[in-house]
Amino acid sequence: MAEAEPTIRYTERGGRPVVEVGGTWTVFSVRGIRKKAESALAAAGTRSKDRPAIDATAVERIDTAGALEILEISGCGPEAEVETRNESQAALFKVVRENMCQAQPDRKVNWLAHWLEEIGHGTIDFYKQILNLCSFFGEILVVLVEAILQPKRFRPNAIIRQMYEVWIRALVIVGVLCFLIGVVIAYQGVQQLRQFGAETFTVEAVGIGMFRELGPLLTAIIVAGRSGSAFTAQIGTMQVNQEVDAMRTIGLNPVEWLVLPRICALLISMPLLAFWGDMAGLLGGAVACTVYLDFTFVQFFDRLRDTVGAWHFYTGMIKAPVFGIVIATIGCFEGLQVRGSAESVGQLTTKSVVESIFCVIVLDALFSIIFLLAGV
């Protein structure tokens, strides 16, 4: 049996305006009713100054959407007197009236105040993020000390599996990019230094640049975008699937089982990747020098050995494991912050990469200042 269409009519009883409604008023039937109501009320002529009452005794079926539509169309508001056909409809109108509220007016915000407010919120969020990261890092240290005291708690199989992912499978991309960067440095060095007749110093530029800065830094950025994001996505997906909660329920510490193997793997892999990147960059520089200068490979590496000290290499190797720890910690931390949905996984994965690269660059600057003050 088809449901009756919603009806609305404006009348007067004893000199008082009354809005009569009937038919079916549900979320599925009230679509387009406002236009009908406007024409019906306009045809009724001038309204009385008194607030109209509502006669809903002819309503056959109604839900909260229909009750709200009746109150709004009639213009009576929450204070309206409503006559219904039974107590259930009266209770429904009462609930809707109690929860009706006026829409908040648009607040005019000064652009400067809004900008300062955004800066304040960002500063507070940044401060809380730093505190949470420090707390998480402290938890990792506690677990690490416990594992050192009880070596059986280390999981070599998990560490080796993670090393395969973050080291072996990253060799190609790290090698190619560092090789190309070495070519670019050598080419730019030759072009600029040739103006002063000092193009042979391109060897020093390539060696020092790759050893001290570009080798470890580029490797860290690649690892942050590749492995750090993978850590966040993997642990975040486990959070969404409630696997991490299940681990806690059966008495397993997620930091020990998920975080520690990844940090150990990246701690070991980063110096190896940085060394590989250094060698690829030097090879790229050597290739460029053989093309743009009258150098052979032997001459390039002989000059490199004679002019570039070992400490330039050591400074880069000192940075690499620190970068690895930071990237793995941030990646795992953001993965454990995932809540609710796959959308959260994507958002925190992006956040993980941005934070990792930011921290790596800040740490690189701090290392440069420390080495400068130390005279290294």
Keywords:
376 residues, Transcription Regulator spoIIAA, four-stranded mixed beta sheet, alpha/beta, 4 strands, single chain
Give the helix/strand layout.
Layout (H helix, E strand, L loop, with lengths): L6 E7 L2 E10 L7 H11 L9 E10 L1 H11 L7 E3 L2 H13 L11 H39 L6 H11 L4 H23 L8 H39 L2 H7 L4 H39 L4 H11 L2 H27 L5 H33 L2
Parallel strand pairs: 2-3, 3-4
Antiparallel strand pairs: 1-2
Q: Give the number of helices.
A: 12
Distance between the termini: 90 Å
Low-confidence stretches: none
Strand content: 5-15%
Mean pLDDT: 86
SSE string, helix = H, strand = E?
A: EEHEHEHHHHHHHHHH
How is the biggest beta sheet arranged?
Answer: 4 strands, mixed
Number-wise, the strands total: 4
Shape: elongated
How large, in whole angstroms, is the Cα Rg?
Answer: 35 Å
Task: Describe the strand arrangement of the main beta sheet, using strand numbers.
Answer: 1-2-3-4
Number of domains: 2
Give the helix/strand class.
alpha/beta
Helix-residue proportion? over 70%
Question: How does this model look, in words?
Answer:
- With 376 residues, the protein is an alpha/beta fold.
- The chain folds into two domains: 7-99, STAS domain (Transcription Regulator spoIIAA, 2-Layer Sandwich); 127-374, no CATH class.
- It contains twelve helices and four strands.
- A four-stranded mixed beta sheet has the order 1-2-3-4.
- The model has no long low-confidence stretch (mean pLDDT 86).
